[in-house]
Each structure stands twice: as C-alpha cells, then as structure tokens.
Amino acid sequence: MSEPPTASPQTLSSVTVLGTGALGGFYGSRLLLGGCQVRFIARSDCAILRRDGLRVDSPLGDRHHAPIEVYAASDPVPASDCVLIGLKTTENHRLPELLRPLVHPGTIILNLQNGLTAEEELVAAFPEARVIGGVCFLCANKIGPGRIAHLDYGSIGLAPVHERDRHLLAPLMERLAAGGITTEELPSLADARWRKLAWNIPFNGLSVVLNANTDVIMADPDARRLATQLMTEVAQAAAACGHPFAPGFIAERLALTERMTPYAPSMRLDYLAHRPLEIEYLYRRPLREAQSRGLRLTAIEMLADQLTFLERHHQRNPEPGR
C-alpha cells in the first residue's frame, strides 16, 4: 500500500475543501483554476454538486466547474496534500471527527475561519499535521445549492502556527496566485487575527442587531459611531495581548468599508436563515483573552449578549421577514 502524500516545499498538487459554502466554494474554484486537484466535501449540496457542478459568479470571471470531485462527509476521501477548512466555527465541535480520516503525517491543515484560538485547537488535536492560518479578505455569499456569488476582494494572508512550517507557505501561495488570488506572507498569525476581528466584531454583529448591510451602517452616523467604538475596543484588547495596531488603522478600515460593495456579512445571512451564529470564536474568546489581562470590553460584551439573545429567540420563534 502506498503511503499518503505529504506536502513538500516544492509542490502542492491536491487540496480537499471541507465545507463548500461561500468561502470554500470560492477558493476551491480558484485552486482548480490554479492547477490543483480539488476534492470538495459537502453536506446538503452533495447530490446537486455531483449532478450540476459548482458555479461561481465573480468579477474575476464567471466559472462553471463540471464535473467536480465531490464527497459526502461520510465517504472515504483520498488523501490530499492539504485540507482547507471552509466550515463556520459553529461546526468546530465536529472538526476532530470530520478531519480525522483526512489528516495524515505531514498533511497541511489550512484554516480559513475567523476568530481566535481555532488553530491552537487544531494543533492539539492533530500534532502530526502542519497547521497554517489563513486570514481572508473576501466578500462572497452562497446564493443557492452549488452557487456562489463573489462580490469583491478575495486576498489571503497566510502564516504558520509553528515557524518550522513557514517553508510550506510558498507552494500554497503559488497555487492561489495561479488562480488569480493575491496572497501575503504574514509575519504573525496572531497579529492578523486581531486585525481581522477589528472588522468582523463590529460589522458582523451590527448587521444582525441593526438589521442592516455594511453600506447602511456606514451611512448612518449613529451606527458608524457604534462601529468605531467597537473597533476601538478591539484595538485596546489587541494591544493588551501584545498585538497593537498601527496608527491610523481604524480610520483606514472604516474608509475601506465605506468603499466596499454593499455587503451582507455572513453573520447576517446566518441569522436570516436561522442558522447558528459564530458568537463563541468571534466574541466570547476575544473577550476572555482581554479579561485574562484585566481588560473589560463593555461594548463588545453587550453586543455579544445581544447576539446570544437574538440567536436563542430567533431560532425558537422564527419571525418571517426579519
């Protein structure tokens, strides 16, 4: 029996995408265009993807990939050099079970989730793997089974959890670049995670509690002030944890959001679809990190509590049209 493939510094030939939603579907499409063999693992869309393939509508060019290699989570999946995690963090309680058949000694686990501490959990669960964090700047939505709408952006910053694995970034970046994705090698994954939270914490949460997309939030002075207050608290927490933002970072993020294509953040879409919200990794864990350093983030804590209330009651008593 042949040994499972392991990634080398020179080549990356195969990727398994775990979770074929907006993020996994988009980057899986770009990896296909970059010359990778891509295996998609899907749950609800598996039969449709097998029959109709994957469609991605994008400013980079609309793509229809058919046929594609699609598996249900329960299927035996051939080993790949890399497993790309495209699932929401609300599924992380299932990750060890889902990943176990896919991970072999030397397998790269590329985690594209938002929030804090997921990579540390992956390292603890799979010490034989090579864990890399990816910080995505992407506006994309799943608009139907096997159908992704890419609205804007798409760049990825990459950093390994362990410096010994930094040489593995090059083949990943090469494949993504071949598919038209701008990549950046990050000096610090933790720095990048906190910078991403500076956008995710205000705009994901406010999009739910204010029932508004990014353009509406930015155009309203009170909503914009709330977003600025939340960003400021993230900056305070990041500094307390040893990851300070550069001067002018908050103003630059706000200006970027103002220029962004009007966008419904993923948490708003999850709420409207009565799906669980990513409160734990995006809010509770940063709050705990700050609290462990004697810092209380009152605005973020209040937003997290509002989201928890809304999630609980919205799922129990769905309200049409909300």
UniProtKB/TrEMBL annotation:
InterPro entries in alphabetical order: 6-PGluconate_DH-like_C_sf (IPR008927), 6PGD_dom2 (IPR013328), ApbA (IPR003710), KPA_reductase (IPR013752), KPR-Related (IPR051402), KPR_N (IPR013332), NAD(P)-bd_dom_sf (IPR036291)
Protein name in the entry: 2-dehydropantoate 2-reductase
GO cellular component: cytoplasm
Domain Ketopantoate reductase N-terminal span(s) in chain numbering: 15-160
Keywords tagged on the record: NADP, Oxidoreductase, Pantothenate biosynthesis
Pfam families linked to this entry: ApbA, ApbA_C
Gene3D superfamilies with a match to the protein in the record: N-(1-d-carboxylethyl)-l-norvaline Dehydrogenase, domain 2 (1.10.1040.10), NAD(P)-binding Rossmann-like Domain (3.40.50.720)
Gene Ontology MF annotations: 2-dehydropantoate 2-reductase activity
The keyword Lipid biosynthesis is annotated on this UniProt entry: no
UniProt cross-references to NCBIfam families, sorted A to Z: apbA_panE
Domain (Ketopantoate reductase C-terminal): residue spans on this chain: 191-309
Family in the record: Belongs to the ketopantoate reductase family.
